[in-house]
Amino acid sequence: MLPLAALMDLLPEIPPIQLAPMTMGLGGIGLSASAAASVSAMASLAASANLSASLSASAVAQLEALANISLALGISPFSVNASAQFALAIQSMNASLPSLMMPALNLLAPFAELLAFLGELLSFNSALNLSLGLSLGMPGLGAALQAALSASASLSASASASLSASASAALNLALHARLGLAASALGINLALSGALPKLNAALSLAAKLALPGLTVNLGQLGALSAGLGTLAAISAAFNVNLMLPNAAQLLAAALAPLFDALAGLGSLNLGLNAALSASASASLQAAASASASMSAAMSVAAGIGFGAKFSLSLLPDLGSLNLAATLAAQLAPFGLNIALSPCMVCPMAALKEGFAAATA
User: Fold this and answer.
1) C-alpha to C-alpha distance for 79 and 318, rounded to whole angstroms
2) CA dist list (Å): 33 to 46, 61, 124, 166, 226
3) CA distances (Å), origin 318, targets 12, 65, 73, 179, 284
4) pLDDT by residue (tens digit) across 319-347?
5) Contact call for residues 173 and 301 (beta carbons, < 8 A)
6) Taken in order 55, 58, 61, 65, is the CA torsion positive or negative?
7) Each residue's pLDDT tens digit, 141-164
8) What is the C-alpha separation between 172 and 98, in angstroms, rounded?
């Protein structure tokens, strides 16, 4: 029901340019001076902190998934009746999603290429800003990018190795900051005394959750969540409410200069710089991204004593439920609560009427 059809007529043709390789290539150009300094500062902070050497990214991701599920569904995984509440939510989603996903995907299908390209456009612009402090649509972008390419050629292998080592320490600090943020979202402040034993006790409870399985098509679930996620990212990036009648005109006006800028970038070679390995580049990019988004959490994490062990590995596999919970949160602005429907027929009947009106 979003006015995307009008956008197709207002935008110029999608430029014949492959953005994904260019986005990856930006990592090889090198970080801006401010981002590199930020990574080094994070590494210094990590060196003086009492961090856990055994903390893994996959374990932290599981805790983040638990936090996302809890926030999206409004259920505390540490409550005595958590299993029953999650079971009701999953049963509701099993009943609601099969009749919802395909009609919604069919509505988005005509715009799949446009949404995919706009998602890549946002990723490229973000990488451009993070790496070099530049952005699409700025005057003289081509010359500035060419200068950055020339400057990156002088990056020595030794400098690359040094920055890579800093990035590794910075990423470890970022991982602990993510742990702190996820625990905080679950109601546990790791900066307080005795918080780690409390986290251990809570995780032991969460490990005993009895969760029924999701019986929905995970491919459709992922595709719909990705489409709605791109719509939300576009709306946020350009400050345009896509449900407004004039949304297409506003978005087209914001996108036109970016499309023009892309037309002049096709001849630039954004391949990975040979002096900076792909792995080092990825680490630097991730570390710089973390420093830009979690600076306050970094300082808190550095002050926490992570000497005690905590059992993140106890958590069950939450991948599919996390995806369904994310979709539940994405559908909430449309007035749909797929995780808690007192009547399965009424909301779905209303939704089908809306789809019928939109596609008439």
Assistant:
1) 17
2) 20, 30, 19, 14, 34
3) 42, 7, 14, 16, 29
4) 999 999 999 999 988 888 898 754 444 44
5) yes
6) negative
7) 878 877 776 665 555 445 555 666
8) 40
Distance CA 319, CA 323 (A): 6
Q: Could you tell me the pTM of the whole model? A: 0.80
Query: Among candidates 258, 11, 273, 293, which has minimal Cα distance to 135?
Result: 258
Q: What φ, ψ does residue 32 adopt, rounded to 5°?
A: -65, 160
**For residue 131, what are its two tokens?**
């790496």
Mean pLDDT over 243-257 rounds to: 86
| Amino acid at residue number 317 | D
User: CA–CA separation, 228 vs 118, rounded Å?
Assistant: 13
Is residue 118 within 8 A of residue 19, CB to CB? The reply is: no
- Per DSSP, 334 falls in state G
Write out the two tokens for 12. 């110029």
Q: Give me 58's structure tokens.
A: 């996959």
The CA R_g of the chain, rounded to the nearest whole Å, is 23
